[in-house]
Each structure stands twice: as C-alpha cells, then as structure tokens.
Amino acid sequence: MDSTDVVIIGSGINSLVAAAELALDGKRVCLIERSERLGGFIHSSERTLPGFIHDTFSSWHPLFVSGGAYGKLGKELHARGLEYCNTSGPVTASVAAEPASGAHRVVIAHRDSSETARAFKEPGDQQAYLAMLDDLGRNSGTIFGAFGAELRSFREVAKIAFGAVRRGRWAGTEAFVRDSVMSGRNYVRSRFDGWEADQLWSPWLLHAGLGPDQATGGVMLPVMAMTMHGFGLPVVKGGASRFIAAFESLLKDNGVRVLLGTEVEEVLVGSGSVTGVRTSQGVVPAGTVLANVSPQALYTRLLSQPPSGPAGAAARYQNGRGAMQIHLALDRPVEWLDPRLNQVPLIHLSNGSDSTGIACAHAEAGLLPIEPTVVVGQQCVLDPSRAPQGKATLWLQLQEVPFSPVGDAAGELSVEEGWTEELKQAYMQRILARLEQFAPGTRATVLAWDIIAPTDLAAGNPNAVNGDPYGGSAELFQNLLWRPFPEAAGHQTAVKGLWHIGASTHPGPGLSGGSGHLVAQKLAETPRFSRIQAALKPSKR
Predict the structure, then answer these.
(1) How far apart are CA 234 and CA 58, in angstroms?
(2) Average pLDDT in the 418-429 region?
C-alpha cells in the first residue's frame, strides 16, 4: 500500500476542497467515503422521470464562487468540465398574502442593488438598503476575515483587528458588532420602516441554519444580500453531480487515492498523536487525519479514548431543525400570478420574520407547521437542460420540519407513526396547496414526485444527525468562537495530527468549502508537516 500523508474521512464539499488543495501542494492524500459515491449532500439524478435532472439536496453555489476555495481551485475545476449557469437580472424573491386583505405581496431582489432598492415603497428604506450594503462593504475585511480565520488564534484575530484599525474602521466597530449579534427580525426593524427587506431576506437566514429570532442574523442577513447581489445564484449546468465529476477528475489527476464503500471504524492514536485510521477494508497509516464528521461521531465513536471534555460536550451538542426536500417533474414551467416570478431562480413563500418565525417555533416544538416557509427552486430558469423541452423541474425545500413530529399544528395530519409514506405525501399536499395560492394550476401539472423526509436525510448521511443538514444549530452559543463547542473550538483537536472539518466546525454550514480550505492552508504552512512530508518522500539519487 502506498504511503499516505493525509487521510480525509468523508467526501462532502470541505473534504473535496481539502483533498484537492493538499494534493496540489504535493501531499499524498487518501479520501475515504462510506457510500458508493463522492459528494455528500452534493448530488443530482433523474429522481422522478427520465430526462428530469434534480439536485437531490443542495443546489445553489454563491458561497462557493465567492470563497477562497474557488479562488484556489476554480480554474482547475472549469478545466475539467465545471460550468455554471447564472443570472444577471432577478436573483431571488419572496411572496406572501396580506394578513388582512389576502392581496399578494411580492418583493424581488435583482443583481443590481439599486434596482432592488427602488421597489421599496417607504422612501427612507431605499437609502437604508444601500446603506446596509455599504456598511457591510466597509467592514467586509473584518467579517470575511473572521469567517476565514481560526478564531481561537490570537495571532489571526489580532491580524483582523489590526486590519480594521488600518482601514480606519475601529471607531465604528462597536456599533457594527452590536448590529451583527442582533436577530434578523430586530436588525430589519432597526433599519427599515417597510416590509420589503424583512420579507426578502429574513427567510434566507434558514439557509444559514438560523431563524429570524436568533442572534447573528444581523450579520448573516446583509451577508446573504451582498453575496447574491455580487455573485448571483449560480447552479451547475447539467446538475450538481457534474460539480463532483470535476472534483473527481482533479483528485485523480493529482494522485488522490479514493476509497468508496469504506467505513472508517476508528481513528488510531499512539502516544497522543494520530497514526492512521482503521477501516472496514483495513488500516490506512497516516500522520494527519481530517475528519469531516459530526462531533458526536468524532468524540463518541471514532476515538476510543477521547478527551473527556470534548466527549461530554459532544453528547450534549444540539442539532437544529430537520429539513425536507420535494422534487417535482412538471408538464410545464410554473405560471405565477405575478408573471415577474416566472424568471426568478429561487422564491420563498414567506412574509418574512413573522410567518417564518412561527413556522420555526412550530418545528422546534415538534409540530408540523401550518404555513411553512417553502423554498421554491426553479433551476430550469437558469439551466433549461434540466428537463425535456417545454417541461420543468421544481425543487422544494422545507427547513422548519421536526425529525420526530409529536403533532400537527393544524390538527389535520396523524404523526403517530412518524415519517411514513402516508405522512410524507399528506404533508406534500399541504405544501402544494400553499404553492397554489400564488401559482394556481401547478398541482395539475405534476407528472411525478420524490420526497426526502428528515429521516431519509439522516439515513443517507450520518452527518445529518436528526435530519439536520447544517451540522448542528448555528445559534451563537455553538457558532463562531464556540463552534462546535468551547471544549473543542477550532479545527485542530487535542490529538496531535487530528483535525475536525465540516459544517459543524467554523465557519459553519454552506457550500463555501470554508473549513476544508482553512485547514488545507494551515497544513501547507505548518513547518512540522512539511518536514515530515520531506522525510517520507523517496530520494531522487
């Protein structure tokens, strides 16, 4: 067996990024995946009917194309077939019914932030919206520096602080930090008089593993807005699996050994340092291991003698709400009552903090929400190749779903046996009825469907503990400086050579590949790692 510098457990976005960057840096990498394919939650297939390509889980790549991993790997991936479809016009929208009149309320974000702001009805809100983006822009070095840094490192935090001073931003830092730790609801209330900004961006907090009433919404809301104004909502042409195919080619070209269908059973440790991993196919020796797994798996299963502090904290680690995906094959594209929505890639059915906050509260209490926030993905708007001519796919995501429902907030559905096929289909009908409010006739165009419940997510990916695809609640107490928990914050663990990456580590969930990129950069600059690598390489004499 060839010698290995680095073993990477799991093959989600952070593992792929780390494997590619380390291999390009000359490291000998072995990537081990328990399933028969790479990619984790990045996948596409004909889930409903032949010719209809559905992104099974994640779909949208603004965080990837705006991040450091893409800066490092983008050229290599495009050379191996990666192609994005994007928009230069409308990006996202939100539609709701007025509580009193029932009239429809629609707000649309365009790539052009000024065009977006001009639709705000309150005169002061137009300027407030542009000011929000300007404020983030002036503090972007601090915010994005923190997202890409080890926050337990005094040197790295001091570097970020020095940068803020050098840019003359220190005087306004306290106010910016105060705004950042607000909930999304309080943030929009403090800045806007009208409803548009709240309805447009508060539902996007769900995509960060938050709700409208949780801390740090005050920074994530403008980050979402700025990212989409700047980078749009790119999807992979032909489906998300082509993204994985480009990575697979890159790894192969750089000598990465990939073991599929192989379960890592134990991280091997000797004298306080990693010595490799024991798998279902045998032992793979290595002096460095990157574990893209849940905290529970790392500290209660993979380490036979874990440090007591992290092990106890892992047992108490809190996962977030469950999620659900519904894939539809349609006989024609959706026809919205507001025809402007026909060309918007992603639409939320939500009135903002109010309806989304109520749905989050229902899910947190174990109830099926009466009016869930429905994420409506119209990938065919950007990439018509996803469906036969004249037809369309629809990607519906629900992020306020209990893993083990104890009741139905509407009092209509029986949940006694959990997520049975009957409950899945009954809940899908509730979602379709909600969609019919704004796009009547859609239900009649459904040719086939595929439903992925929270229990299916957990069964398909062990990192989705309790059906949570975001690697654990992203509330402030286990986020940023404290992710996944204070006893093991940071990516380098107490076991020498063992690193923890993935959505449950900083900077958290999303398709940026942030933790994989960060750790790969750390290893590339570690003198000890470089010396070991040099010693292991055969002589050229």
Answers:
(1) 12
(2) 98
